[in-house]
Amino acid sequence: MRPLVSGSGPATLSLFERVGLAAVAAILWALPACSVPTDAEFFPAAQDPPFTVTAVAFPQPQEQPQPINPTITVAVSDFPDPATAQFPAVQLGRRGQAIEFLVELSLASKQLVIRPRRQLLPENDYFVSLSKEVQALSGRALEPPLSVRFRTGNFVVPAPAPEAEVTLGQLLSGPAGLAARCAQPGCHSAAGGGGGPAQGLAFDWGEAQLASYLTTRRARGSFEGLLLVQPGAPERSYLVRKLIASGGFARIAGAPMPPAGAPPLDASLLRALELWIRQGAH
Protein backbone atom coordinates (compact mmCIF):
# COMPACT_ATOMS: atom_id res chain seq x y z
CA MET A 1 0.00 0.00 0.00
CA ARG A 2 1.12 3.55 -0.58
CA PRO A 3 1.97 5.58 2.56
CA LEU A 4 -0.85 7.76 3.77
CA VAL A 5 1.46 10.74 4.20
CA SER A 6 4.14 11.66 1.71
CA GLY A 7 7.68 12.20 3.01
CA SER A 8 7.78 15.51 1.15
CA GLY A 9 5.13 17.13 3.37
CA PRO A 10 5.71 19.45 6.37
CA ALA A 11 7.41 18.01 9.43
CA THR A 12 4.57 19.06 11.78
CA LEU A 13 0.94 17.98 11.23
CA SER A 14 -1.98 20.17 12.20
CA LEU A 15 -4.55 19.04 14.76
CA PHE A 16 -7.03 18.45 11.94
CA GLU A 17 -4.56 16.23 10.08
CA ARG A 18 -3.71 14.27 13.25
CA VAL A 19 -7.40 13.67 13.96
CA GLY A 20 -7.97 12.56 10.36
CA LEU A 21 -5.09 10.11 10.46
CA ALA A 22 -6.23 8.74 13.77
CA ALA A 23 -9.72 8.12 12.36
CA VAL A 24 -8.30 6.29 9.38
CA ALA A 25 -6.08 4.19 11.65
CA ALA A 26 -9.06 3.31 13.83
CA ILE A 27 -11.05 2.18 10.82
CA LEU A 28 -8.19 0.03 9.52
CA TRP A 29 -7.65 -1.47 12.98
CA ALA A 30 -11.34 -2.42 13.14
CA LEU A 31 -11.25 -4.27 9.83
CA PRO A 32 -11.00 -8.08 9.97
CA ALA A 33 -7.46 -9.43 9.78
CA CYS A 34 -6.24 -9.73 6.22
CA SER A 35 -3.35 -11.60 4.65
CA VAL A 36 -2.35 -8.97 2.07
CA PRO A 37 1.45 -8.56 2.30
CA THR A 38 2.67 -5.07 3.03
CA ASP A 39 4.36 -4.81 -0.36
CA ALA A 40 1.29 -5.97 -2.33
CA GLU A 41 -1.50 -3.89 -3.82
CA PHE A 42 -4.54 -3.72 -1.53
CA PHE A 43 -6.80 -4.12 -4.56
CA PRO A 44 -4.97 -6.53 -6.92
CA ALA A 45 -5.31 -5.82 -10.63
CA ALA A 46 -7.70 -8.06 -12.53
CA GLN A 47 -5.95 -11.00 -14.11
CA ASP A 48 -6.00 -11.18 -17.89
CA PRO A 49 -7.13 -14.50 -19.35
CA PRO A 50 -4.22 -16.86 -20.12
CA PHE A 51 -2.69 -17.25 -23.58
CA THR A 52 -3.35 -20.86 -24.51
CA VAL A 53 -3.55 -23.30 -27.40
CA THR A 54 -7.23 -23.89 -28.15
CA ALA A 55 -6.98 -26.54 -30.89
CA VAL A 56 -4.51 -28.54 -32.98
CA ALA A 57 -5.69 -29.86 -36.35
CA PHE A 58 -4.01 -32.49 -38.55
CA PRO A 59 -5.04 -33.71 -42.03
CA GLN A 60 -6.24 -36.96 -40.43
CA PRO A 61 -7.66 -37.60 -36.96
CA GLN A 62 -4.71 -37.32 -34.58
CA GLU A 63 -4.78 -40.98 -33.54
CA GLN A 64 -4.46 -42.08 -37.19
CA PRO A 65 -1.30 -42.03 -39.38
CA GLN A 66 -0.67 -38.64 -40.97
CA PRO A 67 0.57 -37.94 -44.52
CA ILE A 68 4.30 -37.39 -44.97
CA ASN A 69 3.45 -33.86 -46.18
CA PRO A 70 1.14 -32.72 -43.36
CA THR A 71 -0.29 -29.28 -42.75
CA ILE A 72 -0.70 -28.68 -39.02
CA THR A 73 -2.90 -25.84 -37.77
CA VAL A 74 -2.49 -24.58 -34.20
CA ALA A 75 -5.22 -22.23 -32.97
CA VAL A 76 -4.49 -19.96 -29.99
CA SER A 77 -6.62 -17.80 -27.73
CA ASP A 78 -5.02 -14.43 -28.56
CA PHE A 79 -3.10 -12.68 -31.34
CA PRO A 80 0.29 -14.45 -31.65
CA ASP A 81 3.35 -12.22 -31.76
CA PRO A 82 5.19 -12.96 -35.03
CA ALA A 83 8.52 -12.04 -33.43
CA THR A 84 8.16 -15.00 -31.05
CA ALA A 85 6.12 -17.54 -33.05
CA GLN A 86 9.09 -18.98 -34.91
CA PHE A 87 11.99 -21.39 -34.41
CA PRO A 88 13.20 -22.34 -31.80
CA ALA A 89 10.04 -21.44 -29.83
CA VAL A 90 8.10 -23.38 -32.48
CA GLN A 91 9.55 -26.73 -33.51
CA LEU A 92 8.67 -29.68 -35.72
CA GLY A 93 10.66 -32.89 -35.87
CA ARG A 94 11.49 -36.22 -34.32
CA ARG A 95 12.45 -36.38 -30.67
CA GLY A 96 15.62 -34.34 -30.22
CA GLN A 97 15.92 -33.67 -33.96
CA ALA A 98 14.24 -30.55 -35.34
CA ILE A 99 13.59 -30.23 -39.06
CA GLU A 100 13.04 -27.23 -41.32
CA PHE A 101 9.48 -26.02 -41.64
CA LEU A 102 7.41 -23.03 -42.68
CA VAL A 103 5.08 -21.08 -40.39
CA GLU A 104 2.22 -19.02 -41.74
CA LEU A 105 0.71 -16.72 -39.14
CA SER A 106 -2.82 -15.33 -39.18
CA LEU A 107 -3.71 -12.61 -36.69
CA ALA A 108 -7.29 -12.43 -37.92
CA SER A 109 -7.79 -16.17 -37.30
CA LYS A 110 -5.43 -16.39 -34.29
CA GLN A 111 -3.60 -19.39 -35.65
CA LEU A 112 -0.29 -20.79 -36.89
CA VAL A 113 -0.12 -23.05 -39.94
CA ILE A 114 2.98 -25.28 -39.91
CA ARG A 115 4.27 -27.20 -42.94
CA PRO A 116 7.53 -29.18 -43.27
CA ARG A 117 9.82 -27.97 -46.06
CA ARG A 118 10.41 -31.56 -47.15
CA GLN A 119 8.43 -34.75 -46.88
CA LEU A 120 8.69 -36.50 -43.53
CA LEU A 121 10.00 -40.03 -43.11
CA PRO A 122 7.21 -42.60 -43.42
CA GLU A 123 6.04 -44.53 -40.39
CA ASN A 124 7.95 -42.41 -37.86
CA ASP A 125 6.96 -40.51 -34.73
CA TYR A 126 7.13 -36.72 -34.93
CA PHE A 127 6.39 -33.89 -32.53
CA VAL A 128 5.06 -30.37 -32.99
CA SER A 129 5.82 -28.12 -30.04
CA LEU A 130 5.36 -24.53 -28.91
CA SER A 131 7.31 -23.37 -25.86
CA LYS A 132 6.53 -20.59 -23.38
CA GLU A 133 8.73 -18.34 -25.50
CA VAL A 134 5.75 -17.98 -27.85
CA GLN A 135 3.90 -14.86 -26.76
CA ALA A 136 0.75 -12.95 -27.60
CA LEU A 137 1.03 -9.37 -28.83
CA SER A 138 -0.02 -8.43 -25.30
CA GLY A 139 3.23 -9.94 -24.01
CA ARG A 140 1.62 -12.90 -22.25
CA ALA A 141 3.54 -16.16 -22.60
CA LEU A 142 1.92 -19.36 -23.83
CA GLU A 143 0.75 -21.41 -20.85
CA PRO A 144 0.93 -24.36 -20.81
CA PRO A 145 3.41 -25.10 -23.61
CA LEU A 146 2.36 -27.49 -26.36
CA SER A 147 3.90 -30.82 -27.33
CA VAL A 148 1.88 -33.13 -29.56
CA ARG A 149 3.09 -36.42 -30.97
CA PHE A 150 1.85 -37.80 -34.27
CA ARG A 151 2.89 -40.70 -36.47
CA THR A 152 3.31 -40.60 -40.21
CA GLY A 153 1.97 -43.19 -42.63
CA ASN A 154 3.39 -43.81 -46.07
CA PHE A 155 1.08 -41.66 -48.17
CA VAL A 156 0.95 -38.14 -49.58
CA VAL A 157 -2.08 -35.87 -49.69
CA PRO A 158 -2.62 -33.70 -52.77
CA ALA A 159 -1.51 -30.10 -52.49
CA PRO A 160 -4.45 -27.77 -51.85
CA ALA A 161 -5.72 -25.77 -54.77
CA PRO A 162 -4.28 -22.24 -54.90
CA GLU A 163 -6.50 -19.70 -53.23
CA ALA A 164 -8.27 -17.32 -55.55
CA GLU A 165 -6.47 -14.03 -56.04
CA VAL A 166 -7.82 -11.19 -53.93
CA THR A 167 -7.75 -7.69 -55.37
CA LEU A 168 -7.74 -4.37 -53.57
CA GLY A 169 -10.93 -3.52 -55.44
CA GLN A 170 -12.68 -6.47 -53.81
CA LEU A 171 -11.58 -5.32 -50.37
CA LEU A 172 -12.88 -1.81 -51.01
CA SER A 173 -16.21 -2.65 -52.63
CA GLY A 174 -19.58 -3.56 -51.18
CA PRO A 175 -21.48 -2.29 -48.13
CA ALA A 176 -19.10 -4.13 -45.78
CA GLY A 177 -15.93 -3.15 -47.67
CA LEU A 178 -13.20 -0.81 -46.55
CA ALA A 179 -14.44 2.10 -48.67
CA ALA A 180 -17.97 1.99 -47.29
CA ARG A 181 -16.82 1.46 -43.71
CA CYS A 182 -13.78 3.76 -43.58
CA ALA A 183 -14.10 6.44 -46.29
CA GLN A 184 -16.51 8.55 -44.25
CA PRO A 185 -16.49 12.36 -43.98
CA GLY A 186 -14.06 13.40 -41.29
CA CYS A 187 -12.39 10.01 -41.38
CA HIS A 188 -10.41 8.27 -44.16
CA SER A 189 -11.97 10.15 -47.07
CA ALA A 190 -10.23 12.42 -49.57
CA ALA A 191 -13.37 14.57 -49.57
CA GLY A 192 -13.58 14.65 -45.79
CA GLY A 193 -12.93 18.35 -45.25
CA GLY A 194 -10.21 20.97 -45.17
CA GLY A 195 -8.03 18.97 -42.80
CA GLY A 196 -7.63 16.13 -45.27
CA PRO A 197 -8.19 12.45 -44.54
CA ALA A 198 -7.32 11.10 -41.10
CA GLN A 199 -3.63 10.19 -40.82
CA GLY A 200 -3.28 11.18 -44.48
CA LEU A 201 -4.93 7.93 -45.60
CA ALA A 202 -8.05 7.88 -47.80
CA PHE A 203 -9.84 4.68 -48.75
CA ASP A 204 -11.64 6.45 -51.61
CA TRP A 205 -8.43 7.07 -53.58
CA GLY A 206 -7.87 5.17 -56.78
CA GLU A 207 -6.61 1.62 -56.27
CA ALA A 208 -3.11 2.31 -57.62
CA GLN A 209 -2.61 5.37 -55.40
CA LEU A 210 -3.98 3.59 -52.35
CA ALA A 211 -1.86 0.47 -52.86
CA SER A 212 1.26 2.58 -53.31
CA TYR A 213 0.55 4.57 -50.15
CA LEU A 214 -0.17 1.49 -48.04
CA THR A 215 2.96 -0.38 -49.08
CA THR A 216 5.41 2.52 -48.72
CA ARG A 217 4.28 4.43 -45.62
CA ARG A 218 5.30 3.55 -42.08
CA ALA A 219 2.69 3.80 -39.38
CA ARG A 220 2.84 6.91 -37.21
CA GLY A 221 3.63 6.05 -33.63
CA SER A 222 4.55 2.44 -34.40
CA PHE A 223 7.58 1.71 -32.23
CA GLU A 224 8.25 -1.38 -34.34
CA GLY A 225 8.54 0.75 -37.47
CA LEU A 226 5.94 -1.30 -39.33
CA LEU A 227 4.76 -0.43 -42.81
CA LEU A 228 1.01 0.02 -43.10
CA VAL A 229 1.15 -3.00 -45.41
CA GLN A 230 4.20 -5.27 -45.62
CA PRO A 231 3.73 -7.21 -48.89
CA GLY A 232 3.86 -10.94 -48.23
CA ALA A 233 3.60 -10.56 -44.44
CA PRO A 234 0.16 -9.59 -43.08
CA GLU A 235 1.33 -10.40 -39.54
CA ARG A 236 3.90 -7.59 -39.92
CA SER A 237 1.40 -5.12 -41.42
CA TYR A 238 0.23 -2.30 -39.17
CA LEU A 239 -3.10 -1.97 -40.99
CA VAL A 240 -4.06 -5.52 -39.98
CA ARG A 241 -3.15 -4.85 -36.36
CA LYS A 242 -5.16 -1.63 -36.33
CA LEU A 243 -8.25 -3.41 -37.67
CA ILE A 244 -8.11 -6.43 -35.34
CA ALA A 245 -7.37 -4.44 -32.17
CA SER A 246 -11.04 -4.11 -31.24
CA GLY A 247 -10.98 -7.86 -30.54
CA GLY A 248 -8.02 -7.80 -28.14
CA PHE A 249 -4.69 -6.16 -27.41
CA ALA A 250 -2.46 -5.29 -30.36
CA ARG A 251 0.48 -2.88 -30.23
CA ILE A 252 -0.92 0.18 -32.01
CA ALA A 253 -0.96 3.93 -31.57
CA GLY A 254 -4.32 5.46 -30.76
CA ALA A 255 -7.66 3.68 -30.77
CA PRO A 256 -8.62 0.53 -32.69
CA MET A 257 -10.45 0.96 -35.96
CA PRO A 258 -13.36 1.01 -36.61
CA PRO A 259 -13.81 3.37 -33.64
CA ALA A 260 -15.65 2.45 -30.47
CA GLY A 261 -19.39 2.15 -30.99
CA ALA A 262 -19.08 1.11 -34.62
CA PRO A 263 -19.53 -2.56 -35.52
CA PRO A 264 -16.29 -4.43 -36.20
CA LEU A 265 -15.29 -5.40 -39.71
CA ASP A 266 -16.48 -8.77 -40.96
CA ALA A 267 -14.10 -11.61 -40.13
CA SER A 268 -14.22 -12.69 -43.78
CA LEU A 269 -13.02 -9.23 -44.85
CA LEU A 270 -10.10 -9.37 -42.42
CA ARG A 271 -9.08 -12.80 -43.69
CA ALA A 272 -9.34 -11.55 -47.28
CA LEU A 273 -7.18 -8.54 -46.35
CA GLU A 274 -4.53 -10.89 -44.94
CA LEU A 275 -4.67 -13.01 -48.10
CA TRP A 276 -4.31 -9.93 -50.34
CA ILE A 277 -1.22 -8.91 -48.41
CA ARG A 278 0.20 -12.46 -48.43
CA GLN A 279 -0.28 -12.56 -52.20
CA GLY A 280 1.88 -9.47 -52.58
CA ALA A 281 -0.56 -6.55 -52.03
CA HIS A 282 -0.71 -5.72 -55.75
Instruction: Give the biggest sheet.
Output: 4 strands, antiparallel
Share in helix: 10-25%
The low-confidence parts are: 1-45
* Averaged pLDDT: 84
Structural class: alpha+beta
Number of helices: 6
- How much of the sequence lies in strands comes to 5-15%
Amino- and carboxy-terminal Cα gap: 56 Å
Overall geometry: elongated
Question: How many E-type strands?
Answer: 8
Query: What is the radius of gyration computed over CA atoms, rounded to a whole number of angstroms?
Result: 26 Å
The string of secondary-structure elements, in order, is HEEEEEEEEHHHHH
Taking strands numbered 1, 2, ... along the chain, how are they ordered across the largest sheet? 1-2-6-5
Write up what this structure looks like:
With 282 residues, this protein is of the alpha+beta class. The chain has six helices and eight strands. The chain has helices spanning 15-30, 168-172, 178-182, 207-216, 238-244, 267-278; strands at residues 53-57, 72-76, 90-94, 97-98, 101-106, 111-116, 125-130, 146-151. A hairpin with a 4-residue loop joins β5 (101-106) and β6 (111-116). The longest helix is centred in the N-terminal third of the chain and has 16 residues, at 15-30. The radius of gyration is 26 Å and the shape is elongated. The model is unreliable at 1-45 (pLDDT under 50).
